[in-house]
Records
---
Amino acid sequence: LVVVDYAPSFSSEIEAILAVLAEHIISRGGYLVFVTSLPTGSVQSEILISKLTARLGLRRALDHANLGFLPGGALGILAFSQAPDRVLPLDIHNKNLWNSSHLKDIHQLSDFGLVIIATENADTSRAWIEQAQPLLADVPMIMVVSAQNEPIVRSYYGTSSSQVQGLLGGLSAAVEYET
């Protein structure tokens, strides 16, 4: 699951990291599912998908799903974490993808193999960590954040009670990860 919760002004910085991460996931046979809790996020997701398609040659119908906008802020995140197929039953093209081979076994957030939260906003980071992470069980949560948000999210990462299992912040993280 890739949560596209960054403002358009941060797209260059965050998409540089997401492109490298997505390439790695796809090379291991992963299927990308996009969602956003921002009104502009559905468009951001489509732009990101177009860039990934150009970079990696993604087959639109086979390699990803775009669930679109998740309304409700923190409560929407909590509801989606408990029952994503009921909260967002249709994708952005009004198709039910939950019966597809990739999503048929997804009934709660912990059924995904990995959750990636991409944001520049500290409040958005905190909302996803506080609402979704407790329901993930052993599923890792990775934060892809702007350089300005990284020090704030770092407090959730690398501690004994680590709520975030991976943290990639700023353009230097994209270079390091790709290397």
---
Amino acid sequence: MSARFSTLEAWLQWQETLHPSVIDLGLSRIRQVAITLFGEDFQKQQPLTITVAGTNGKGSCVTALSALLHRLGKRVGSFTSPHLLRYNERIRIDGAEVSDADLCDAFSAIDTARSEISLTYFEFNALAAFWLFKKYRVDVQVLEVGLGGRLDAVNLLDADVAVITNIALDHVDWLGDTREKIGAEKAGILRANGKLVYGEADMPSSIREICKELQVDVRQLGRDFSVAIQGEDFCWRGVSAEKSSVSLTIKLPALPLPSVACALQVLANLDLWDEKVFSEALPSLSLMGRMEKISINNQQWIFDVAHNAAGAQYLAQRLQCEGVAEVVLVFSAMTDKDIAGLLVALKPVAAQCVLFSLQENARAASISRLHNAALAAGIHPEKIVCVDSAQTAIAYTEGQSSETPILVCGSFFTVAALSDALR
């Protein structure tokens, strides 16, 4: 049977229209297709599987784990979403994006296997990752949960080690409006007698109860492993599989520190500890759109995909920790987010707030909504500038002092729009 399409762009455009809902949580459809694609025993075929859920920092944790495992000599498949500039960013083998041809081959195989079963864009995405990881015979697959956990397509596969980075309010229409409800959904990735690395000191009781019921072996930040900043150093302490103490002191990494801390504890759990390798690799690790710093015409730009209040609060604290007292904030967000909460968190570092609407995005907040949220956040009206596009925002910032960094954040789409326009 010939392939339905010959280009990645055509496949992706078609996938966006195939299923009646953009998001349709549940595992029944993807399980049926996986059985046809891989066989009834597809679970037994899987390599070592690390699944990463949580509200913030998932992509950074996947990046750290994948890079360190690769440096340890493992062939690593990593799956993240969404992408910033290219769909291929979502699926990588040993850090390298898979090719358009690989993705087209995977989509063709999935299309044949699904028959009349309708799949969402993300379900196609997850199955393509599983198909390519099998094709390339990876030793380890590191999988980022797309939304929630319990009903997310990634949860089709059993995790040998699960990570929950943190729990904060986001996607409340889908996951619930309290940390307890959201925690219960994220804990859906846990398995009986499995392992969990949890990345904050405050664990919702819903997760704790599920861990107890399933007899999960838990390593929790603040209890079993810790992270501290001493000057310009990052100091981590944790426990090995045998519960002996392990530690690491390195130059401060660019990635979010709780995400790095979780990655290190996973490797300690798996008895894959190599202080020399980690010391060499971690300080240079970076990820697009995560405290990403670029200098253009002697102007420093900082890109970060923080898109909820908790993420924005961490971002502001990290900037202050690095000695950045104030920034020109270039901001846009989706209309279903707590925009005022985002701006309240960023207010301590925002010397000026340049707002624009992502008009081509149906989910984007209007400029009036953004302006009202900025006022509600307590930002002085004289500090607020409203412009009509990413290009206009860039043009406006060119007239500002080059001594003040420009921070772009609010959503993946915001960072993508500015990155695209600048590059």
---
Amino acid sequence: WPDPNEGARVISLDSSKGVGGKMGDYSSFCMIHWHNGTFYIQFDMANDRNVVDIVKRSVELQRQFRPKIFGIEAEFGGASLGQNILELATREGLFCNLVTVNTHRLNEAGQKVATPKEQRINGLGQFLGAKRFRFKLGCSSTRLAVQQMQEHPNGLHDDGPDSCEQGIQIYLETRLGIAA
């Protein structure tokens, strides 16, 4: 695993607390460390967290992982949840560079269009095929997220792949001062 002082780090959260969420969905934090052309990835997933637990875990993971950016899905209450995360981080004296990630992507004409989740997750295939991902498989949440990727699009859950796609999207949109 790369030295924490090298490369750049992002955490992306798929809270799965939005409208129409499936029963048993996971809140999925994807921690991504970009270093020397590779995305090192670890997950923290649970399907029994309430909103208070998600906010607390968000701040704990930021303290431990020290990301440059913490991303959360903009739709389905992400802005409200993000505000709660920022408030707790501030109370605890922790700087939080929170961004909201939307499910819209630019088309060939440069216009923002809604992109179905399945299509966004399928975009991870280019990185998997190029062997640009390294997963911390000693972690049960990471093994679960990799299983969800393997079962996509026919699996019961896709929260791990969704949070991973959001984290990668943050890199692609911000570059964090690096080239992908």
